[in-house]
Design a protein that fits this description.
There is one protein chain. The strands form 2 sheets. Strands 4, 5, 6, 7, 8, 9, 10 and 11 form an 8-stranded mixed beta sheet that branches. Strands 1-3-2 form a 3-stranded antiparallel beta sheet. It has 2 domains: 88 residues; 160 residues. With 270 residues, the chain is of the alpha/beta class. It is elongated and about 65 Å long. The N terminus is likely disordered.
Length: 270
């Protein structure tokens, strides 16, 4: 994904998305489509200077920030609004079941010898880049999924006819001891970013279309407090994101892993 940056004026984004939303919404509405051109129209009506990157407005509310409170309040109980792609430059507001996936603090933290080159930490330009690098250099995909995996491409931008433009942070391909082959789309999340059905759906849809013979295992990695990394395997069931597996890792110098740590992992690893 693009580098995580706070919009200079989130209120500007909110005003435009509100205008678009309420130009379509009426009580009882559960979904509707709108076109990218409506961003321009809404900005002109509100006499707001458009962001240079028009797509960043949609991106911000799809993946990073909550929609304005005025929109949230229209959702039915236990539901929330999402914005999903519906074709080239077409989007859909849709109500789905409220779903918040957050790392469980009670899970065991597993220490892993840190193989990240120090120079990477010195020059990584964003939390997302740093996270992807730590996952890659420490083979956390292999450790987490129990397969041998290789990074195929990062920051993949492409289009699906049914969805429109999509972005995948990093793609891995892998193999297990039985010869089964896998494709692993990876999401990189900062501490406050949300795991949502929109991105998980599009990651899986792309993999099924591009690599139909491979098993798709969608992964999300997220920084936690105290330098821990949460790893989730996600799937979509009945239109909702579900956690298949969750593990927490801490990258440390090899000498910091004690005999007691290893004994604990031995007890829980069988």
């Amino acid at each position: 994904m693009p580098e995580a940056r706070q919009p200079r004026n989130l209120n500007r984004y909110s005003a435009i998305i509100e205008r678009i939303f309420f130009s379509h919404y009426s009580p009882g509405t559960t979904q509707f489509e709108f076109r990218r051109t409506q961003i321009v129209t809404a900005a002109e009506e509100l006499k707001i200077v458009l962001p240079k990157n028009i797509g960043d407005l949609i991106y911000a509310f799809r993946y990073r920030y909550e929609l304005p409170q005025t929109i949230l309040e229209t959702a039915a109980e236990d539901l929330e609004w999402i914005i999903e792609g519906s074709g080239q430059a077409i989007y859909r507001f849709k109500q789905v079941k409220l779903n918040r996936i957050e790392p469980r603090e009670e899970l065991l933290t597993i220490k892993v010898p840190d193989a990240t080159p120090e120079i990477i930490g010195a020059y990584a330009l964003s939390d997302e880049q740093a996270l992807l690098a730590k996952v890659r250099y420490n083979r956390l995909i292999d450790i987490f999924l129990g397969i041998t995996a290789y990074s195929l491409q990062n920051h993949l931008r492409t289009n699906l006819k049914e969805i429109g433009q999509i972005e995948i942070d990093e793609m891995y391909v892998g193999i297990d001891r039985h010869g089964r082959q896998f494709v692993v789309p990876v999401q990189a999340k900062g501490g406050k970013d949300k795991h949502g059905v929109v991105q998980t759906n599009q990651d899986i849809a792309y993999c099924q279309k591009k690599f139909p013979a491979l098993v798709c295992r969608a992964v999300s990695a997220q920084f936690m407090s105290n330098d821990r990394i949460a790893m989730f395997e996600l799937t979509v069931q009945d239109g909702h994101v579900k956690v298949v597996e969750e593990r927490h890792y801490l990258l440390v110098p090899a000498k910091s892993i004690t005999a007691e740590d290893l004994h604990l992992y031995n007890l829980h690893g069988s």
